Amino acid sequence: MVEVSVFKEGDETLWDAFVTCANNGTLFHTMKFLRYHPPTRFDNHHLMFHRADSLVAVLPGAIVGGQSYQSPCGASYGGLVLDKGLGLEDCIAIIEALVEYCTELGLKDIELTGVPRDYWCSYDDHLDYGLLYHGFQCQSTVLNYVIDLRLDAVEETFSKNIRRDIRQNIRRGVSVQRGELDELDVFYQMLRDNKAKNHAVATHSEEELRHLVRHFPATIEIYFARLEQECIGAIVLFHCNDNAALTFYICHREAFSSFCPATLLIAHLTELCKARGCRALDLGPSTWPDMTLHEGLIHYKQRFSARGMRRDSWKLSL
């Protein structure tokens, strides 16, 4: 029998240790990361699942509008984080406990969005089957494009044009280095300018991003493409777990687009993450939940031999 309890103060060490060793835990599931949000932003309701005396799953989430349990809230990925070695019966029992718990709270639905399969230590379809077994429906799917770092010579799989652009612009003097915290204002202005062209704003404010980079120096990094020490492009790298890293906020200065800063940044991070032992470099989504295709992004990422990996969002009406 699986029992559900609500996360409380004092559980953080146990929670984060479990996430770190779990089959599909990421930085975004840790309490250390989620605490960057102001405590009043979400009605947090994080759940822990025990069988006998063992913690077998956790679920970061919040109650939205007083009637919907949603995971994630305030993070890129959420969903159930599972202990290694769980079988189908275990997953079915954990989801059954979640459904019963939310029903007893009088909630109207449950919405979950997990991580793509490349983030898992050992992937299987037990969790998805368990969701289907209990009546969840896949309400939306996006494709994240992921570079497979397990290949011996990853850059040799890039298209000829990408490899040519890398060689040419290195010869022209473009280099990539990790940025310092005091350069974040330079990065954020570049990001703001890029977003403004599409009438969009960044997910994180400048202060939120500064907080994250300051408090996670080993796992959240900014890299700059430079030409004679002038910043011409930048990207944020989230080292999500030992298996996968995620790129965020790739941007460049329009006047230097002919120097292909984005291409050199991705090539550099491919080499860096492979050297760190990651299996996958996630370049982020290129389709939207309404099934709209960002064809330009898809074409560009596929030139790095990136593969489309599903990120499903599940919903159950109670």
UniProtKB/TrEMBL annotation:
Q: Name one GO molecular function term.
A: transferase activity
Q: Is Cell division there in the keyword field?
A: no
Identify the InterPro entries for this entry: Acyl_CoA_acyltransferase, BioF2-like_GNAT_dom, PG_Glycine_Bridge_Synth
Q: Which UniProt keywords apply?
A: Transferase
The answer to keyword Transferase applying to this record is yes
Q: Which residues form the BioF2-like acetyltransferase domain?
A: 160-287
Q: What is this protein called?
A: Acetyltransferase (GNAT) family protein
Coiled coil ranges (UniProt) are none
